Structures are given as C-alpha cells and as structure tokens.
## 1
Amino acid sequence: MSVKNTSKNYGTIAKWFHWGTAVLFLVSYLSIYYEIWFTPGLPPPGVPRDPAYWTSLQIHLSIGVSIAVLVILRIIWRIINRQPNEEAGSKLEHLAARAGHYALYAIMIIQPILGYIGTSVNTEYFFLFEISKFEETALFASVVSDGLGMTFQEFEVPIDFLHKEVFGRWLIWILILGHTSAAFYHHFVKRDRTIYKMTNNKKHSE
Ligand code: HEM
Ligand code: HEM
C-alpha cells in the first residue's frame, strides 16, 4: 500500500484524512445532539454549568476546529498529490462526482467557520488550551462592530441559523447521503472499483 495516491488507489494519507474526517463528523453530530437532547443546556447567569452540558458542547467545538485544521492539510495534500483515475462513466457522472466532492470540501470549511463565529463561548480545545471566541477578536471589532455596526447578539442570529438549521440539519445530510449513495451505486450497481480505491481492499488492483 502506497503512502501517496497512485493511478488506481488513494494512498494511506488520503484514506486517513477521508475516514478520519468521516468519524469526526459522526462524533461532532453525536456530541451536539447529546448536548441538546440530554443536558439542561446553557444555564441563566449565576447558575453553575452542568458538567455534561459543558463537556459535550466542548467536544463538539473541539472536533469542529479539528475538522477545519484537517481540511486545510488535506487540501494541500490533494494539490501536491496525483488523483487516482476516475472509473468509466458519462461526462455528466464525472461532473456530478467532482461537484459533489467540491461541495463536501466546501462544507468542511464553511461549517466550522460558521460555528466559530457564531458561538458565544470560548473553545476549550479538548480541555488542553483555550481559543478565544470570535466576539473577542480584533476581526470582530473591525468587521462586525465597526464595519457592519452590529452587536454580537444581532450578528449571531443569521449565523446560527445557517450553522444549525441550513447546514447542520439539512445541507450536510443531503450531501453525505448523496455521497454515500453514489459510493454504493458504484459498488452494487456499476460494480466498479470506486469503493476499493478508498479502502484497503486490494481487490482487482495491481
Ligand atoms: C464540521 C463541523 C461542524 C458540524 C458538522 C456542526 C454541526 C452542528 C449541528 C448539527 C448543530 C445542532 C443543530 C441543531 O440545533 O439541530 C450544531 C450546533 C452548534 N455548533 Fe456546530 N458544527 C460544526 C462545527 C462547529 C464549531 C467549529 C463550533 C464552534 C467553535 C460550533 C459551535 C456550535 C454551537 C455553539 C452550537 C449550538 C449548541 C446549542 O444549541 O446548544 N460548531 N453544530
Ligand atoms: C460511509 C460514508 C462514506 C463512504 C462510503 C465514502 C466513500 C467515498 C469514496 C468511495 C470516495 C472515492 C470516490 C472517487 O474517487 O470517485 C470518496 C471520496 C471523498 N469523500 Fe467520502 N465517503 C463517506 C463519507 C464521507 C464524509 C462524511 C465526507 C466529508 C464530509 C466525505 C468526503 C469525501 C471527499 C471530499 C472525497 C473526495 C476525495 C478527493 O478526491 O479528494 N466522505 N468517499
């Protein structure tokens, strides 16, 4: 198995990025819905925070930040690496596959940014170190306060709407469902090597 991509397969590093990110997405969803469904949520001022609420929220934030860092490294790796050859298919299928992959890259960048700029708490990155919330940065002061003349409370409404309702509840699910359906369509209907390219299975490869 090669570290770099070959004409037939994704290499070890591309596979780790791919499956590692898929697991991070899953844990990101599990942690935030655990927080929303099973913990009391943000307490009113003066009331102590519930530890399960804070831990599950911080896991969500830390994982989101990790996805953002990983996607940058992944894109660099993709640029300096060759792409495996595409399986046979119509022009439209190739176009749809490429558009789908670019859209997945886009959500891996946009969703963590929306989460970060819309949150009212600092990120305690896996409880190792703290990342200041956007509201406390110079960028917020110059762009949002001075530039747009908005308070954080006004600014977070549309941002939270995009992060939670548009991307979190709908867009990401639609893209991932489309992506996995396409992978299974290749495997079970077209019976080509698409899934093997992204797994360790050596079937039909050189
Ligand atoms: C790709 C990464 C991410 C994904 C897939 C994601 C997804 C989600 C989802 C599904 C929700 C709940 C939506 C609902 O209300 O039904 C949510 C809420 C939230 N996310 Fe993210 N998120 C990501 C990254 C981030 C980051 C990086 C931050 C901040 C640093 C963040 C902060 C929040 C906050 C504060 C909430 C609201 C929690 C609450 O309602 O108590 N997210 N996110
Ligand atoms: C069970 C879930 C998943 C399966 C079965 C799966 C399968 C695959 C396969 C077979 C490929 C190779 C496609 C090709 O070369 O034509 C691929 C590529 C890709 N997948 Fe997934 N995937 C899954 C989850 C995810 C998730 C959750 C994300 C991100 C949110 C994701 C993002 C991508 C991206 C961006 C590519 C393109 C890689 C590149 O060429 O740079 N996948 N996936």
## 2
Amino acid sequence: MDDGRWTKMSSLIQAKNLTRRYSDHVMALDHVDLTVERGEWLAMMGPSGSGKTTLLNLLGCLDRPTEGEIFFENRLISTFSAQELNRFRRENVGIVFQQFHLIGYLTALENVMLAQYYHSMVDREEAKRALEDVGLGERIHHYPSQLSGGEQQRVCVARALINQPKLILADEPTGNLDEKSEETVLDLFRRLHAKGHTILMVTHDVTVGKMADRQLQLEHGRIAGSYLSPLQAEEDIENFLKRLWELREEGKLSYDYLQKNNFLDHAGVLKYMQAKELLEVKDRKIYFTSAGELRMRDIIRRHRLAEILFSKALHMDKEESAVEACQFEHMLNPDITERICTFFHHPKKCPHGKEIPGGKCCERP
Ligand SMILES: [Zn+2]
Ligand SMILES: [Zn+2]
C-alpha cells in the first residue's frame, strides 16, 4: 500500500514486551516482542521450559500476561477480564491439542456438533461437511475408539475449525501420532495454510518446524532466534523492498528512520538482503546494488499494475485494490505483468497517483 500502513494492516497479532511470571521466581516469558502476520504459519520451538507453550497460550487467549500488551486485530486483549478473554477466544481461536480430548461416548459427528453447541448453534450438515473436509466423510458415525490416532486428530481439526477462527493454535498436534498418521495431519495443516489460515504451532520436531513460514526458537523465556523459510524470506524481501522504495519516493529513506519506526524488527531480513547483495549499509546509510534496484523496481511495478487491474477491471476502491495487490503481486510472472501493462495501455500512475516504473513493453511503440 502506498500510504505505508501495509505492515500494520496485515498483522493479525502484535505483542509487545510480553512477560509472564508464575511467581516471584518463575519468569516463564521475559519481555518478548512479536508480530504474527495474517496467513502466516509460525512454529515455536525450544526445549521444555523455554516458554513456547506460555507464549502460545498468551497469543491464543488462553492466558493473560503479567506485563506487556497484546493486540489481536488491533484490539487490546491483554486487559480483558478472564470472562471477556474466554468469549473472545471462542469466537476467534480454534485449538488443536496433543491430547485429543474427544468424548468417548460421542461419535465423530457428535463431537463436532458439541463444539458447535458451545460456540453458537448446532448444524448437523455443517458438522458433516467439516468432517468431509478433513477426509473423514466415511467415518462420521464412528466413536473415537474406532478411529486411528491420525483420524482422531483430524476430528479435532474439524472441531477447531467449526467457528471459522481467525487463528488456529496447535500444541504438538502430531506428538501422539505414528509416522503415517502424522503425515496425513501435517498435510491437513499444509492445506489450511494454503487456504490462508493463520497457524501458531508448538512443536519439538525440526521437520515439522521447517514447514512453517517462520520458526521461532525460544530459550529461557526469550526469542533466541527467528528463521524464515526460503519462500517466505523471498516474500518478506519483496515487501521490505517495496516499503524502501516508497520511503525513498517520499524522501524519508534513512537507516535512522527505519530504526526509529520499527522497520528493523525483522532485522534478519536486512541481513539476509545484504547477504544476497541487494543492498549495503555503510555509516548508517543504505545503498542499493544494481540487483537491488532492479528487484525493487520490479516489485513496485507488479504491485502498482496489480492495483490498476483490481481497480479498473474489478472496480475496487483504492484501498481494497492495494490490499488485494499485496497478495497478488508475489504471483505475477514477467509475462503476465507485461500483458497487464499492455492491456491497460502502459499506465504511468497507480490509483494512488504514484508512478509506475516502466517495463520492456512500455518502450515499444
Ligand atoms: Zn498505489
Ligand atoms: Zn508497459
């Protein structure tokens, strides 16, 4: 987005200075700052006692911090009463535990319907569909004891999704499963992620962690490391480059400005970009390499052409087209980009009136 709010608007959760003490001596979480983006799959790893489950519980509205703030969709939830937090969680969070917590004398279908009952209204057809979605259409009348571990966990996922939660929490969801069941459950999480669900998962399994967009390593109640999957790193780089271009356009680009305005929260991205020789930081100044310039120009061009496409062809307003463009721009290949540009007669300005860098297609008569 050209007005510079895209980082904030896309975030689902922002946690600041998050601290959880269980007594004077036990500091389970120690001043943690964290942002969870919409659609992100975040894996929390670390030894037991590192604070990963505490963090999961705080972000998932199961617990309240001793200190610090949590914003969930820009609502300050850390000051909610226990009752308010409960209600908020029921409406916004779906939870999958390591232990299945299914009721033994109810069928798979009835277990899902029970969750509906707690949430709002019982709807048998919807519950059936939810089980079909997780591949259990044939097993809806089975009792938990007649289902394999993997199948039981899939019932739990169906149950967690019943209120269309904005956030899915999963605490070691494959911890009790054999290898084959683990594979089917992980496949399910992959599909949920592809559909745009936001997933926070605690796991000790490195392979599972690698499926996530980002792995957080916790130690002694602090975030000791944060690693992006290669694909996510590329998208983050593009988003960051886009922002840098916009700042330069506004004449505000400097290292101090980035630092002051919390752009360096993801300091890893900047380091990664230096390693990939897209830019250099010298004496607190930022210099782009020619590869960096090209890459930046390219992403801005894709973003603004996508805006044109959404506003002109689909009649979205400026803001809506900007939000949609933020998703779409990462998927545009050079050929499609040129076609969009040509179709709209090589537009010079985006709907916000910002300049669209020209491409090869624009040079031809
Ligand atoms: Zn624009
Ligand atoms: Zn063109």
